[in-house]
Amino acid sequence: MPIQWFPGHMHSTKKAIAERLPEIDVVIELLDARLPGSSANPLLADLTRNKAALKVLNKQDLADPECTAQWLAHYQALPGTNALALDASVTAAARQLIAACRDLAPLRGGMVKPVRVLICGIPNVGKSTLINTLIGQRAAKTGDEPGITKVEQKILLANDFYLFDTPGMLWPRIVVEQSGYHLAASGGIGRNAYDEEEVALALLASVRHRFGERLQARYKLDDFSGVTDEGLLANIGRKRGGLLAGGNVNLQKAAEIAINDFRCGAWGRITLETPDEFAQWWAAGQALDAERQAKREARSRKKKPQREDAAGAEGQMSEGSA
Ligand SMILES: Nc1nc2c(ncn2[C@@H]2O[C@H](COP(=O)(O)OP(=O)(O)OP(=O)(O)O)[C@@H](O)[C@H]2O)c(=O)[nH]1
Ligand SMILES: [Mg+2]
To answer: Is 106 contained in some domain?
Structure first.
Protein backbone atom coordinates (compact mmCIF):
# COMPACT_ATOMS: atom_id res chain seq x y z
CA MET A 1 0.00 0.00 0.00
CA PRO A 2 1.50 3.40 -0.96
CA ILE A 3 2.47 5.91 1.72
CA GLN A 4 -0.47 8.12 2.73
CA TRP A 5 -0.50 11.47 4.57
CA PHE A 6 -3.56 13.69 4.75
CA PRO A 7 -3.69 15.19 8.26
CA GLY A 8 -6.68 17.25 9.42
CA HIS A 9 -5.30 20.66 8.48
CA MET A 10 -5.27 19.57 4.82
CA HIS A 11 -9.06 19.15 4.91
CA SER A 12 -9.31 22.76 6.10
CA THR A 13 -6.81 23.86 3.43
CA LYS A 14 -8.87 22.21 0.72
CA LYS A 15 -11.97 24.02 1.97
CA ALA A 16 -10.14 27.36 2.27
CA ILE A 17 -8.73 27.09 -1.27
CA ALA A 18 -12.16 26.18 -2.70
CA GLU A 19 -13.71 29.22 -0.95
CA ARG A 20 -10.97 31.61 -2.06
CA LEU A 21 -10.87 30.53 -5.72
CA PRO A 22 -13.83 32.55 -7.04
CA GLU A 23 -11.86 35.75 -6.39
CA ILE A 24 -8.53 34.45 -7.78
CA ASP A 25 -7.20 35.36 -11.23
CA VAL A 26 -4.13 33.12 -11.49
CA VAL A 27 -3.16 29.93 -9.67
CA ILE A 28 0.53 29.18 -9.31
CA GLU A 29 1.13 25.52 -8.52
CA LEU A 30 4.61 24.95 -7.18
CA LEU A 31 6.06 21.58 -8.12
CA ASP A 32 9.28 20.03 -6.90
CA ALA A 33 11.60 19.94 -9.94
CA ARG A 34 13.14 16.69 -8.62
CA LEU A 35 9.74 14.95 -8.80
CA PRO A 36 7.40 17.04 -10.96
CA GLY A 37 4.87 14.27 -11.65
CA SER A 38 4.66 13.02 -8.08
CA SER A 39 4.44 16.52 -6.64
CA ALA A 40 1.55 17.60 -8.90
CA ASN A 41 -1.58 17.37 -6.76
CA PRO A 42 -4.55 15.82 -8.63
CA LEU A 43 -6.88 17.35 -6.03
CA LEU A 44 -5.58 20.86 -6.83
CA ALA A 45 -5.90 20.12 -10.54
CA ASP A 46 -9.59 19.35 -9.96
CA LEU A 47 -10.20 22.39 -7.77
CA THR A 48 -8.46 24.84 -10.10
CA ARG A 49 -9.54 23.41 -13.45
CA ASN A 50 -11.06 26.63 -14.84
CA LYS A 51 -8.35 29.03 -13.69
CA ALA A 52 -5.38 30.49 -15.54
CA ALA A 53 -2.54 28.29 -14.30
CA LEU A 54 1.19 28.56 -14.02
CA LYS A 55 3.27 25.48 -13.15
CA VAL A 56 6.49 26.39 -11.42
CA LEU A 57 9.20 23.76 -11.09
CA ASN A 58 10.88 24.92 -7.91
CA LYS A 59 14.21 23.76 -6.41
CA GLN A 60 15.63 23.53 -9.91
CA ASP A 61 19.05 24.09 -8.32
CA LEU A 62 18.73 20.54 -6.91
CA ALA A 63 17.29 18.92 -10.08
CA ASP A 64 18.99 17.48 -13.16
CA PRO A 65 18.89 20.25 -15.84
CA GLU A 66 18.18 17.85 -18.72
CA CYS A 67 15.22 16.30 -16.91
CA THR A 68 13.93 19.78 -16.00
CA ALA A 69 14.00 20.72 -19.70
CA GLN A 70 11.99 17.56 -20.51
CA TRP A 71 9.38 18.37 -17.86
CA LEU A 72 9.08 22.00 -18.99
CA ALA A 73 8.49 20.84 -22.58
CA HIS A 74 5.93 18.33 -21.30
CA TYR A 75 3.92 20.98 -19.40
CA GLN A 76 4.24 23.62 -22.08
CA ALA A 77 2.71 21.18 -24.59
CA LEU A 78 -0.44 20.88 -22.42
CA PRO A 79 -3.33 23.14 -23.46
CA GLY A 80 -3.67 26.38 -21.48
CA THR A 81 -0.62 25.69 -19.33
CA ASN A 82 2.50 27.76 -18.89
CA ALA A 83 5.51 26.46 -16.97
CA LEU A 84 8.84 27.73 -15.76
CA ALA A 85 11.62 26.49 -13.52
CA LEU A 86 13.33 28.43 -10.75
CA ASP A 87 15.06 28.51 -7.41
CA ALA A 88 12.66 30.26 -5.04
CA SER A 89 15.42 32.15 -3.28
CA VAL A 90 16.74 33.85 -6.43
CA THR A 91 15.09 37.23 -6.86
CA ALA A 92 15.46 37.82 -10.61
CA ALA A 93 13.97 34.42 -11.52
CA ALA A 94 11.12 34.75 -9.03
CA ARG A 95 10.27 38.18 -10.41
CA GLN A 96 9.64 36.65 -13.87
CA LEU A 97 6.59 35.19 -12.24
CA ILE A 98 4.99 38.55 -11.66
CA ALA A 99 5.19 39.37 -15.37
CA ALA A 100 3.87 35.88 -16.24
CA CYS A 101 0.89 36.37 -13.89
CA ARG A 102 0.10 39.79 -15.33
CA ASP A 103 0.16 38.25 -18.83
CA LEU A 104 -2.28 35.55 -17.71
CA ALA A 105 -4.72 38.12 -16.32
CA PRO A 106 -4.67 40.88 -18.98
CA LEU A 107 -8.03 42.34 -17.88
CA ARG A 108 -6.83 42.90 -14.32
CA GLY A 109 -4.43 45.49 -12.92
CA GLY A 110 -4.67 48.90 -11.27
CA MET A 111 -6.00 49.64 -7.75
CA VAL A 112 -9.61 48.90 -8.67
CA LYS A 113 -8.94 45.52 -10.22
CA PRO A 114 -5.78 44.14 -8.58
CA VAL A 115 -4.27 40.89 -9.87
CA ARG A 116 -5.03 38.18 -7.29
CA VAL A 117 -2.70 35.19 -7.27
CA LEU A 118 -2.97 32.01 -5.20
CA ILE A 119 0.22 30.02 -4.58
CA CYS A 120 -0.37 26.38 -3.77
CA GLY A 121 1.45 23.07 -3.80
CA ILE A 122 2.55 20.13 -1.69
CA PRO A 123 4.10 20.68 1.76
CA ASN A 124 7.71 21.90 1.93
CA VAL A 125 7.95 22.69 -1.80
CA GLY A 126 8.97 26.34 -1.21
CA LYS A 127 5.71 28.36 -1.43
CA SER A 128 6.51 30.67 1.47
CA THR A 129 10.16 31.04 0.40
CA LEU A 130 9.00 32.16 -3.04
CA ILE A 131 6.63 34.73 -1.54
CA ASN A 132 9.38 36.10 0.70
CA THR A 133 11.71 36.41 -2.30
CA LEU A 134 9.02 38.19 -4.30
CA ILE A 135 8.35 40.80 -1.66
CA GLY A 136 11.98 41.09 -0.55
CA GLN A 137 11.37 40.39 3.14
CA ARG A 138 10.42 37.54 5.48
CA ALA A 139 6.66 37.98 5.54
CA ALA A 140 5.85 34.28 5.51
CA LYS A 141 7.29 31.68 7.87
CA THR A 142 9.46 29.03 6.16
CA GLY A 143 11.27 25.90 7.33
CA ASP A 144 12.74 22.63 6.19
CA GLU A 145 9.87 20.40 7.23
CA PRO A 146 6.36 19.86 5.88
CA GLY A 147 3.47 21.75 7.46
CA ILE A 148 5.14 25.08 8.35
CA THR A 149 2.33 27.27 6.97
CA LYS A 150 -0.86 26.43 8.86
CA VAL A 151 -3.37 28.96 7.56
CA GLU A 152 -3.80 31.00 4.41
CA GLN A 153 -2.01 34.37 4.44
CA LYS A 154 -2.71 37.37 2.19
CA ILE A 155 0.35 39.34 1.12
CA LEU A 156 0.32 42.66 -0.70
CA LEU A 157 3.06 42.66 -3.32
CA ALA A 158 2.04 45.98 -4.86
CA ASN A 159 -1.10 48.10 -4.65
CA ASP A 160 -2.48 46.18 -7.59
CA PHE A 161 -1.07 42.72 -6.91
CA TYR A 162 -2.01 40.34 -4.05
CA LEU A 163 -0.58 36.95 -3.28
CA PHE A 164 -2.18 34.30 -1.12
CA ASP A 165 0.18 31.82 0.57
CA THR A 166 -1.50 28.52 1.41
CA PRO A 167 -0.54 25.58 3.62
CA GLY A 168 0.89 22.60 1.75
CA MET A 169 -1.66 20.02 0.66
CA LEU A 170 -1.33 16.43 -0.53
CA TRP A 171 -4.25 14.32 -1.75
CA PRO A 172 -6.40 11.89 0.24
CA ARG A 173 -5.21 8.78 -1.61
CA ILE A 174 -1.78 8.55 -3.24
CA VAL A 175 -2.38 5.75 -5.74
CA VAL A 176 1.09 5.72 -7.34
CA GLU A 177 3.43 3.80 -5.05
CA GLN A 178 6.62 5.44 -6.38
CA SER A 179 5.06 8.87 -5.78
CA GLY A 180 4.60 8.14 -2.08
CA TYR A 181 8.28 7.19 -1.82
CA HIS A 182 9.48 10.16 -3.85
CA LEU A 183 7.37 12.58 -1.83
CA ALA A 184 8.72 11.13 1.42
CA ALA A 185 12.33 11.18 0.15
CA SER A 186 12.07 14.84 -0.85
CA GLY A 187 10.61 15.94 2.51
CA GLY A 188 6.97 16.48 1.52
CA ILE A 189 5.51 13.91 3.95
CA GLY A 190 5.38 14.05 7.75
CA ARG A 191 8.17 12.06 9.40
CA ASN A 192 5.80 9.70 11.22
CA ALA A 193 3.96 8.59 8.08
CA TYR A 194 6.77 6.52 6.53
CA ASP A 195 9.53 4.07 7.26
CA GLU A 196 12.96 5.52 6.47
CA GLU A 197 14.52 2.23 5.42
CA GLU A 198 11.70 1.54 2.96
CA VAL A 199 11.94 5.07 1.54
CA ALA A 200 15.75 4.91 1.23
CA LEU A 201 15.51 1.61 -0.66
CA ALA A 202 12.96 3.06 -3.10
CA LEU A 203 15.11 6.19 -3.47
CA LEU A 204 18.21 4.15 -4.31
CA ALA A 205 16.17 2.08 -6.79
CA SER A 206 15.11 5.28 -8.58
CA VAL A 207 18.56 6.85 -8.57
CA ARG A 208 21.04 4.01 -9.10
CA HIS A 209 20.53 3.45 -12.83
CA ARG A 210 20.61 7.04 -14.05
CA PHE A 211 22.96 8.51 -11.42
CA GLY A 212 24.87 5.46 -10.16
CA GLU A 213 28.30 7.02 -10.60
CA ARG A 214 27.29 9.83 -8.22
CA LEU A 215 26.56 7.31 -5.48
CA GLN A 216 29.83 5.56 -6.21
CA ALA A 217 31.73 8.84 -5.91
CA ARG A 218 29.93 10.03 -2.78
CA TYR A 219 30.40 6.84 -0.77
CA LYS A 220 33.55 5.52 -2.49
CA LEU A 221 31.75 2.33 -3.49
CA ASP A 222 32.98 -0.40 -5.83
CA ASP A 223 30.89 -1.24 -8.90
CA PHE A 224 27.47 -2.19 -7.52
CA SER A 225 25.69 -3.20 -10.71
CA GLY A 226 25.18 -6.77 -9.45
CA VAL A 227 24.18 -5.71 -5.93
CA THR A 228 20.54 -5.54 -4.75
CA ASP A 229 19.06 -2.30 -3.39
CA GLU A 230 19.32 -3.77 0.13
CA GLY A 231 22.98 -4.62 -0.53
CA LEU A 232 23.62 -1.11 -1.80
CA LEU A 233 22.07 0.46 1.33
CA ALA A 234 24.16 -1.88 3.49
CA ASN A 235 27.30 -0.82 1.58
CA ILE A 236 26.46 2.84 2.21
CA GLY A 237 25.95 1.95 5.86
CA ARG A 238 29.32 0.20 6.02
CA LYS A 239 31.03 3.29 4.60
CA ARG A 240 29.08 5.92 6.51
CA GLY A 241 26.42 4.73 8.90
CA GLY A 242 28.55 2.77 11.34
CA LEU A 243 28.16 -0.78 12.53
CA LEU A 244 26.03 -2.20 15.30
CA ALA A 245 27.43 -4.43 18.02
CA GLY A 246 28.10 -7.82 16.41
CA GLY A 247 29.22 -6.25 13.12
CA ASN A 248 25.79 -5.80 11.51
CA VAL A 249 25.19 -2.61 9.55
CA ASN A 250 22.99 0.04 11.14
CA LEU A 251 20.48 0.20 8.27
CA GLN A 252 18.32 2.82 9.95
CA LYS A 253 21.31 5.15 10.18
CA ALA A 254 22.31 4.33 6.59
CA ALA A 255 18.77 5.15 5.42
CA GLU A 256 18.80 8.51 7.24
CA ILE A 257 22.16 9.40 5.71
CA ALA A 258 21.03 8.47 2.19
CA ILE A 259 17.80 10.48 2.49
CA ASN A 260 19.53 13.53 3.98
CA ASP A 261 22.28 13.45 1.36
CA PHE A 262 19.66 13.36 -1.40
CA ARG A 263 17.67 16.21 0.17
CA CYS A 264 20.61 18.57 0.54
CA GLY A 265 22.03 17.87 -2.92
CA ALA A 266 25.11 15.92 -1.78
CA TRP A 267 24.55 13.49 -4.68
CA GLY A 268 24.56 16.40 -7.14
CA ARG A 269 21.54 17.56 -9.13
CA ILE A 270 19.12 14.65 -9.35
CA THR A 271 15.62 14.16 -10.75
CA LEU A 272 13.74 11.03 -9.72
CA GLU A 273 11.31 10.70 -12.62
CA THR A 274 10.94 11.55 -16.32
CA PRO A 275 7.59 12.43 -17.95
CA ASP A 276 7.46 9.02 -19.72
CA GLU A 277 8.22 7.05 -16.57
CA PHE A 278 5.68 8.97 -14.58
CA ALA A 279 2.99 8.46 -17.25
CA GLN A 280 3.53 4.67 -16.97
CA TRP A 281 3.38 4.69 -13.14
CA TRP A 282 0.27 6.86 -13.25
CA ALA A 283 -1.51 4.48 -15.65
CA ALA A 284 -0.49 1.42 -13.58
CA GLY A 285 -1.56 3.14 -10.33
CA GLN A 286 -4.95 4.08 -11.78
CA ALA A 287 -5.49 0.53 -13.10
CA LEU A 288 -4.59 -1.01 -9.72
CA ASP A 289 -6.83 1.44 -7.91
CA ALA A 290 -9.76 0.64 -10.24
CA GLU A 291 -9.17 -3.08 -9.59
CA ARG A 292 -9.17 -2.51 -5.81
CA GLN A 293 -12.32 -0.44 -6.06
CA ALA A 294 -14.07 -3.14 -8.15
CA LYS A 295 -13.10 -5.80 -5.58
CA ARG A 296 -14.41 -3.65 -2.72
CA GLU A 297 -17.71 -3.13 -4.53
CA ALA A 298 -18.02 -6.86 -5.30
CA ARG A 299 -17.39 -7.66 -1.60
CA SER A 300 -20.02 -5.20 -0.43
CA ARG A 301 -22.53 -6.58 -3.00
CA LYS A 302 -21.92 -10.07 -1.59
CA LYS A 303 -22.44 -8.85 1.97
CA LYS A 304 -25.61 -6.88 1.19
CA PRO A 305 -28.04 -9.82 0.56
CA GLN A 306 -26.95 -11.35 3.88
CA ARG A 307 -27.81 -8.13 5.68
CA GLU A 308 -31.16 -8.05 3.85
CA ASP A 309 -31.80 -11.68 4.95
CA ALA A 310 -30.96 -10.73 8.50
CA ALA A 311 -33.24 -7.69 8.32
CA GLY A 312 -36.00 -9.94 6.92
CA ALA A 313 -35.54 -12.45 9.76
CA GLU A 314 -35.61 -9.64 12.33
CA GLY A 315 -38.76 -8.29 10.74
CA GLN A 316 -40.40 -11.74 10.93
CA MET A 317 -39.37 -12.15 14.54
CA SER A 318 -40.79 -8.84 15.56
CA GLU A 319 -43.94 -9.56 13.64
CA GLY A 320 -44.17 -12.93 15.44
CA SER A 321 -43.56 -11.41 18.83
CA ALA A 322 -46.08 -8.59 18.35
N1 LIG B 1 17.54 24.31 -2.58
C2 LIG B 1 16.38 24.94 -2.54
N3 LIG B 1 15.71 24.98 -1.37
C4 LIG B 1 14.53 25.63 -1.36
C5 LIG B 1 13.97 26.26 -2.50
N6 LIG B 1 12.78 26.81 -2.17
C7 LIG B 1 12.58 26.52 -0.86
N8 LIG B 1 13.63 25.81 -0.35
C9 LIG B 1 13.75 25.28 1.00
O10 LIG B 1 12.68 24.35 1.19
C11 LIG B 1 12.23 24.38 2.55
C12 LIG B 1 10.71 24.61 2.59
O13 LIG B 1 10.40 25.92 2.19
P14 LIG B 1 9.02 26.65 2.58
O15 LIG B 1 9.01 27.92 1.80
O16 LIG B 1 8.82 26.72 4.04
O17 LIG B 1 8.00 25.61 1.95
P18 LIG B 1 6.40 25.68 1.94
O19 LIG B 1 5.98 25.16 0.61
O20 LIG B 1 5.92 27.03 2.31
O21 LIG B 1 6.08 24.59 3.06
P22 LIG B 1 4.74 24.38 3.96
O23 LIG B 1 4.35 25.73 4.49
O24 LIG B 1 5.21 23.44 5.02
O25 LIG B 1 3.73 23.79 3.07
C26 LIG B 1 13.01 25.50 3.24
O27 LIG B 1 14.08 24.88 3.94
C28 LIG B 1 13.53 26.34 2.08
O29 LIG B 1 14.74 26.98 2.39
C30 LIG B 1 14.73 26.21 -3.73
O31 LIG B 1 14.33 26.70 -4.79
N32 LIG B 1 15.92 25.52 -3.67
MG1 LIG C 1 4.71 27.62 3.81
So the answer is: yes
